[in-house]
Structures are given as C-alpha cells and as structure tokens.
C-alpha cells in the first residue's frame, strides 16, 4: 500500500505534538484565553449542545435578547471541525473546556503535514523540511494571536491551496481541480471573511495562471464547471455574511481604525524576525499585544537567514529565468508585500489600499503577518535547500538549534500570558438564579470597579458571553458586529463586554431586567441612590457573596405582558430556536414578548394558526393573537443560515471523500 505519511512527515508531526503538549504542561488550556474564552467558547458550547439535541443552532436566546449566531460568521458554526473539537473534548477528554485547544491542535497537526508535503514537492531535504515545518507552525505570531481561534484554519489552508495550485500548474488534472474548489469553499465557510479576502488577494495571480493554462489546453468545460460550482456554493454564505457580517461597521473605517494594530517599527520588526522572544525585553502580560511591535516577528533563525541568501541567489540567477526562479520570485514578492502591509501606515502601499471599497472595512494591518510568515518561511527554506542541500552535518546542527530555540520560545509564550486573561475560573459561572427565565440579569459594575482585573473577576456573573453557559437571560454580551439598527437603538450604551453603568438602569429596565448585580462593597442604600430608586420598595436582596450582591427589581417590564405593559400570568420555555409561551386560559388580543424583533421569527398558536408578528417602539416583539389561544410558539427560522450550515457539512464530507478517492486512485496506479 502507498504510504500516506513518510519518515519526514512523521517526525514533523511528532515534534509538533510533543512541543504542543509541552506548552500545555506549563500552561494548561493555553488557547482558552482572551476572546476565545469570553466570546467564542460560550457560543460554541451553546451551539454544540443544540446540535447534540438535533437542532441546527440558529439563534442564541440567552443574549442580546436574541442573537443570530450562524450568520455571525466569525463564530465558525459553518465549519464542522468546531463541533468536532467540542465533541472530542466532551466525550473523549470528558472536559469541554479543552475545545479550543483541541481545535488548534487539529489544525496545527494538519498544517504541519500539508506544509511538509509542500516542501517535499520542492524536493527540500529531510532536515530542512523539518526545520521549515516546525518554524512555520511555531512562529511567534501563531501564538501571540492565540486568543483568536479562527486564525489557525488559515495556517492550514494557505499551504493546502498553494500545494494544489502548484500541482495543477505542473499537470492539469480535473480531480485536483475539483479538490481545489472544495478546499476554497471549505476555507470560506471557516467564517473569517477578512482572512479569506486576504488569501484570495495573495493567490489571485496563481488563479489567473491556472485559468490561462486551462484555456490553452482547451479545458473550457472543466474550468467553467469548477468556477460555477464554486460560486453556487459560496452564494448562501455570501448572502448571509453580507446581511449581518459587516452590518454594524461603517461603510469604511476611519483611517486610524483601519490601520488598527500594526508593527510601527519596521526595522525593529525585521531584526526580531531573527530573534526569539526570550532574547527580547518581553512584557509580562498579554495586553501588550495591542502595541506588540516586535514580539510577533520571530519566524525562526534558519528561514530568516534563508531569506537573505535567497535574495542574493535570485540576483545571481536573474539571467536564468526558469520555473524555479519564477516561483521563488513570487514567494519573495508577496512575502515582502504582506510584510509591508503588517507595517500599516509606515509604508505607502497599505495607505493606497485604503481607497479600495470592502478592503477599507477590514481592520488591523497586523493580520497580514499570517501570510508574510507563510511566504517568507517557504521562500527561506527552499532557498536554504538550494544553497546547502548537500551539507547534511550543517543541516543537523541547524535542526537541533531550531528545536531548542523553539522549545525555549514556547516557555516565553507562557510568561507573556496575563493572569486575568487566562484565568479559567471565569468560565465557572456563578448561577444563583438556577436557570430562571422570568427576567434578565445584568451586572452593573462598570464605573464602580475601576480595576481591569476586578472587572475580569466579576465577569463570571453573566458578563461577556458567559450567560450562554448557564442559559440564563441577559441583555447584552460581547459581540463586535451587532446589526446596525439594534446597535443604534438598543446596544449603543453597551455592546462590548456585558458590564453596565448604573445610569443605564432606567433605559434597560424596559427590556425585562429583573435581577441586578452590584459589587458587594456597595450596600443596598447606595445601590438605590445610584439607581435613583427607593431601597425599601423597589429592590430586595436575594443573594450575596464576597464579591457581589444580587437584587430583585420589583417594578420592571416583564418577559410577557399585555398592551398596558402589565405582567401576564404566563411562563416561557426556550429550546430549539423557539420561545414557547403558555398563557393558560386567559384571552388577549395582543401580547408583548420581551425579545427583540427579527424578520426571521414566525409565530403559531396551539391550533396551528399563523400569528402576525410586529414590533413596538422599543423594537420588541408584539404578537396579535386569537381568542382561546393557550400556547404560542415563536420560532426563529433563517433559511439562508440553514442552507449555509447544511452546505458546509456537504462540502466538508465531500472534501474527505475526494481525498480518499484520490488516494485510492494512486494506490491502483501503483498496482496495489
């Protein structure tokens, strides 16, 4: 049987896994930090549990008074490995908090395998192949961006797309062409549109060359078929992401926001491409990354030296233009372009790009470092191979040095993680409410507790997206792309972290706030003064501990109410994208439901009649009902999201099947 893995790739994977587990030993659940922890992990848990119960998770009713989640592409719910990672963590490791780290491990291992294949395609020697692969996986950037799990699929898909395109340029083959289309579609459904656009930009010249070669070979039908299939498969996602993916952002960012985080000292950045972090004056907490400058620059000593030698090699060979020369030139040119983008407004090229629509809605130039690392490491290792391919002893020395430097560098990653950002106690949500659904809970800590660490400590009381872990109801959460109309009308006061200021109390009370949380340092009388209410008649204490006091609000707009905003004797249940309301035998012509209106809601009564849904002046749901209605079921159904979700599953499994068929075909050609 043809081997699907050779000795070089096996050693690569072994080293990657050993270093990864070494990192986990010194900092368990290393990647469950920052946004991964406060934003993505709770939504992944919520969505995965819905899927386990046979429901496509379309909306999170715990937060933002109804938050559509599939169409929020950056949650990755149209990318099956997200759910696979959760299921492996829950049922194999018996601890779902490993989800993010399992997701990262899967992608780093696959990326190492594909990158090693790519280097083998260029006949890079055994030792340099390992050096290149380990350097590509363990760049400083890959770990300083560890709080954004959606970066790691890009680390995998970049070498995969390049490998397939190069294979096709060498020899046109419809199977590989179809596989390339599936890979591009699968990468699109990872959900990070910004990184997908960047990837298409960098590989666009290769696509043009590939199309030109197919036209020369008169493969018109194959080309048209693959392009058509690709666009048809992208349409559901494009439509969905266009509607809500960038909705809350302006037509174009302010220039300073467009640049966002960048490396503002180009020469220092270039110098530190050669230097691991432990040789630098590293800061002691993760928040330094917002001015990270040089700490993400390290790509490995051997690839960095290879870039210099490769540049000299190209100059010396400039009169010998062949395929090898052109490929190296392409890698160097786009490596330099992407590196210039990392420098943001320190180079004129990224300023020019600001004039391009859509591009100017993509913030933070540092994200191009994923692409510059790929091109430059690839270029550097291939160049080193051309120069020292026969010097095996030197290659062994370089390999040992590389692994030692990277292992020490991994230790330095742990020293840069801030305690507050990586404190796993935050996701052990305190839930004094025991999942009650008769009102929402809000934490009023903003402006009272000034220390960032204290705010982080208080976050376990339903701030950020933690309400989704305990399935209680809260007003907001942490989501950076709220729909434009809701952002302006409801969430402009707070949309970022789920902490609120006391002077927001009256505004949000109409949205069903029944339970309020204040720091325990404030007695009830001071809380009442801040809220401008009567301590004796308007609130009562229901829970207290060493951090918080929780109060019940006596006068609030209930979850279900009549036309005069009086509470209706009813109960609600939330499950499977639905709000189920039991009214008993009471008769009303109109009821209000304290969730935000969305055009994708449909309502039916217990007799199967469709009910009309409107919205009131505060954007809340209003339902016209018929006499004798006992139960109302309000269901969220977004067909674009459903199609995109199902299509992503089909694409993912098709990708596996095509890879298997190609493997079987190779076996049959070899006579097995």
Task: Describe the model.
The chain has 672 residues and is of the alpha+beta class. It folds into 3 domains: 7-30 and 71-417, no CATH class; 440-552, no CATH class; 560-637. It is 51% helix and 10% strand. It has helices at residues 7-26, 34-52, 80-91, 99-121, 126-137, 140-144, 151-170, 174-188, 193-216, 220-245, 255-259, 266-272, 301-316, 323-342, 348-353, 369-388, 392-416, 419-422, 452-458, 467-470, 484-491, 505-509, 524-531, 639-669, and strands at 59-60, 67-68, 440-443, 513-519, 539-544, 548-553, 560-561, 571-575, 578-582, 590-596, 601-605, 610-615, 620-624, 631-636. Helix 1 runs parallel beside helix 17 (392-416), helix 7 runs parallel beside helix 9 (193-216) and helix 8 packs antiparallel against helix 24. The longest helix has 31 residues, at 639-669.
Question: Which short descriptors sum up this protein?
Answer:
single chain, 672 residues, alpha+beta, 3 domains, eight-stranded antiparallel beta sheet, elongated
Whole-number mean pLDDT: 80
Number of helices: 24
Extract low-pLDDT stretches. 282-292
**Main beta sheet strand tally, sense and closure:** 8 strands, antiparallel
Q: What's the helical proportion of residues?
A: 40-55%
What is the CA-CA span between the terminal residues?
Answer: 6 Å
**Sheet with the most strands: spatial strand order:** 7-10-13-12-11-14-9-8
Residue share in β-strands: 5-15%
> If you compute it from the alpha carbons, what radius of gyration comes out, rounded to the nearest whole angstrom?
27 Å
Number of strands: 14
Keywords: Membrane, Transmembrane, Transmembrane helix
Organism: Paenibacillus tianmuensis
Protein name: Membrane protein YfhO
């Amino acid at each position: 049987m043809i081997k699907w893995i050779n000795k070089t790739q096996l050693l690569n994977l072994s080293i990657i896994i050993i270093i990864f587990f070494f990192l986990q030993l010194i900092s368990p659940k290393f990647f469950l930090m920052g946004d991964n922890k406060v934003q993505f992990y709770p939504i992944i848990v919520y969505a995965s549990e819905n899927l386990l119960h046979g429901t496509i998770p379309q909306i999170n009713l715990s937060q933002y008074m109804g938050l559509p989640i599939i169409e929020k592409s950056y949650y990755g719910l149209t990318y099956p490995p997200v759910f696979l990672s959760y299921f492996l963590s829950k049922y194999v490791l018996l601890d779902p908090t490993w989800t993010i780290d399992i997701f990262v491990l899967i992608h780093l291992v696959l990326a190492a395998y594909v990158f090693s294949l790519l280097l083998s395609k260029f006949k890079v020697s055994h030792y340099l192949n390992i050096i290149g692969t380990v350097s590509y996986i363990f760049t400083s950037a890959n770990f300083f961006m560890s709080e954004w799990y959606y970066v790691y699929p890009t680390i995998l898909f970049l070498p995969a797309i390049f490998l397939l395109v190069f294979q096709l340029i060498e020899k046109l083959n419809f199977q590989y062409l179809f596989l390339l289309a599936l890979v591009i579609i699968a990468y699109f459904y990872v959900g990070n549109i910004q990184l997908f656009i960047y990837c298409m930009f960098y590989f666009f010249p290769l696509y043009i060359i590939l199309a030109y070669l197919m036209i020369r070979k008169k493969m018109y039908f194959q080309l048209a078929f693959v392009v058509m299939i690709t666009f048809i498969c992208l349409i559901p996602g494009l439509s969905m992401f266009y509607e809500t993916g960038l909705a809350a952002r302006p037509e174009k960012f302010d220039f300073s926001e467009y640049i966002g985080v960048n490396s503002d000292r180009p020469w220092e950045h270039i110098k530190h491409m050669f230097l691991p972090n432990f040789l630098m004056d590293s800061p002691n907490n993760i928040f330094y990354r917002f001015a990270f400058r040089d700490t993400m620059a390290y790509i490995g000593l051997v690839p960095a030296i290879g870039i210099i030698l490769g540049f000299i090699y190209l100059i010396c060979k400039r009169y010998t233009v062949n395929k090898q020369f052109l490929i190296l030139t392409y890698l160097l040119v786009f490596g330099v372009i992407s590196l210039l983008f990392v420098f943001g407004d320190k180079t004129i090229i990224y300023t020019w790009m600001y004039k391009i629509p859509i591009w100017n809605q993509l913030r933070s130039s540092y994200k191009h470092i994923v692409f510059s690392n790929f091109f430059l490491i690839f270029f550097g290792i291939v160049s080193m191979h051309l120069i020292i391919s026969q010097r095996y002893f030197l290659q062994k020395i370089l390999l040992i040095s590389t692994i030692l430097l990277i292992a020490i560098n991994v230790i330095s990653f742990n020293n840069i993680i801030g305690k507050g950002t990586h404190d796993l106690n935050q996701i052990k949500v305190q839930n004094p409410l025991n999942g009650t659904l008769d009102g929402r809970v809000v934490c009023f800590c903003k402006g009272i507790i000034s220390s960032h660490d204290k705010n982080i400590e208080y976050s376990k009381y339903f701030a950020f997206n933690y309400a989704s872990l305990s399935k209680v109801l809260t007003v907001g959460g942490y989501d950076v792309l709220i729909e434009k109309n809701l952002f302006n009308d409801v969430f402009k006061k707070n949309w970022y972290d789920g902490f609120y200021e006391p002077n927001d109390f009256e505004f949000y009370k109409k949205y069903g706030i029944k339970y309020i949380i204040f720091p325990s340092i404030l007695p009830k009388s001071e809380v009442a003064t801040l809220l401008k209410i009567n301590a004796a008649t308007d609130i009562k204490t229901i829970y207290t501990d060493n951090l918080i006091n929780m109060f019940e609000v006596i006068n609030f707009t209930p979850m279900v109410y009549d036309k005069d905003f009086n509470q209706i004797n009813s109960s609600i249940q939330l499950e499977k994208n639905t709000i189920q309301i039991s009214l008993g035998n009471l008769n009303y012509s109109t009821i209000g439901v304290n969730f935000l209106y969305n055009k994708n809601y449909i309502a039916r009564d217990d007799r199967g009649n469709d009910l009309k849904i409107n919205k009131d002046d505060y954007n809340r749901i209003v339902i016209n009902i018929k006499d004798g209605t006992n139960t109302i079921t309000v269901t969220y159904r977004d067909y674009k999201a459903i199609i995109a979700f199902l299509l992503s599953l089909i694409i993912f499994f098709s990708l596996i099947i095509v890879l298997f068929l190609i493997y079987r075909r190779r076996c049959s050609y070899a006579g097995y």
